[in-house]
Design brief:
The chain has two helices and twelve strands, in the order βββββββαβββαββ. The protein is mainly beta.
């Protein structure tokens, strides 16, 4: 799970927002020659089911801090030196709500397709999607067929958008994202 670059460059005056300049790693977004799909970005916490049916929780570790037991490194931020990786789900503070989501699905924890999932629900991030219970939502599930890729078009599109943001997935594995808050819009409650 590498950190997904934001589609536009951050505003150096206000790093919470973006400016009308495409990030160098994201120039492929909107390129008709690059097979890609846009999907809704859910607001929860990232989990992963590996090829053996073992579940992991995303974990960020600050620069210089000790890694937790069982930590699997996925990526390091070159600017902040924070590392991102995975810990076994049973070491995560989200293990109880993850178990609720598994129970609610009616499936066993080892009966899921390998991949990454967003764990969302009442006890996660203030439940901005207002879900009645906890759910595991496979990343890339909700495809968007009308999402613009230009700055002004996205600014208008996201103003009343019902999710946290958009993630673009290229067929070759590259990804890019944009969030409502990147344009200064409130998200959630």
């Amino acid at each position: 799970m590498q950190k997904i670059p934001t589609l536009f460059v951050r505003d150096l005056v206000n790093l919470r927002h973006v400016i009308d300049e495409v990030h160098p790693d994201c120039t492929w977004v909107g390129d008709k020659e690059v097979p890609q799909v846009a999907t809704a970005k859910w607001d929860g916490t990232c989990t992963r089911c590996d090829d053996d049916g073992v579940w992991w929780a995303r974990r960020e570790v600050k620069a210089g801090a000790a890694w937790p037991d069982g930590f699997e490194l996925a990526d390091e931020d070159r600017l902040t030196h924070k590392v991102v990786g995975w810990v076994p789900i049973h070491q995560s503070s989200f293990v109880t709500v993850w178990a609720d989501a598994i129970d609610a699905s009616g499936r066993m924890s080892d009966d899921w397709e390998p991949g990454t999932y967003e764990l969302c629900g009442p006890k996660i991030n203030g439940n901005p999607h207002q879900l009645a219970g906890h759910e595991l939502i496979v990343h890339g599930r909700d495809k968007l067929f009308d999402a613009p890729t230009d700055y002004e078009g996205l600014k208008r599109y996201l103003e009343y958008f019902a999710w946290e943001g958009i993630v673009w997935h290229a067929a070759d594995g590259r990804r890019a994202k944009i969030k409502k808050r990147d344009f200064g819009y409130r998200w959630g409650k």
